[in-house]
């Protein structure tokens, strides 16, 4: 069995944002040379997510509004966690909803997606460099 590991670095300049990382993960699959196997992609931070969905117009804005309704950033004083001096309790909660990782099958050297599936990074406490882990195993 072959195995491959790579860290993708991202720096979202705002507190929150979404990035399509599908091309970067496809590049990892090519680089790995693995034709049949599994590809794990996970955020290495507890205030950002990796998830699969469609790249349709309006979805980033809808996620942003929905997540702000569920766990608004302001007022920061509403969260117990922020009594530690941090202001990112909402980011921990948003990450929980949007998920930590995705696993995609690799078939014939390609990510074996459903029709509209793509891989996204969701940032909820940005303005700094963060990492996404790509781990691929197979033959
Ligand atoms: Zn925190």
What does this structure look like?
This protein is of the alpha+beta class and 139 residues long. It is built from 3 helices and 8 strands. The strands form 2 sheets. The protein has a 5-stranded antiparallel sheet with strand order 1-8-3-5-6, covered by helices on one side. Strands 2-7-4 form a 3-stranded antiparallel sheet. A hairpin with a 2-residue loop joins strand 5 and strand 6. It binds zinc ion.
Ordered list of secondary-structure elements with their pairings:
Elements: E1 2-11, E2 17-20, H1 22-32, E3 37-43, E4 48-53, H2 59-70, H3 89-98, E5 101-107, E6 110-111, E7 118-123, E8 129-138
Antiparallel strand pairs: 1-8, 2-7, 3-5, 3-8, 4-7, 5-6
The structure holds zinc ion.
Keywords:
139 residues, alpha+beta, Jelly Rolls, five-stranded antiparallel β-sheet, three-stranded antiparallel β-sheet, 3 helices, binds zinc ion
Task: Give a nutshell description of this structure.
The chain has 3 helices and 8 strands, in the order ββαββααββββ.
> On the 0-100 scale, what is the average pLDDT?
98
Number of domains: 1
Share of helix, binned: 10-25%
CATH topology: Jelly Rolls
Number of strands: 8
Strand arrangement, major sheet: 1-8-3-5-6
List the bound ligands.
zinc ion
Percentage of residues in DSSP E strands: 35-45%
Task: Specify the number of helices.
Answer: 3
Top CATH class: Mainly Beta
| Model regions low in confidence, pLDDT < 50 over at least 5 residues | none
Morphology call: elongated
Q: What class, by secondary structure content? A: alpha+beta
Radius of gyration: 16 Å
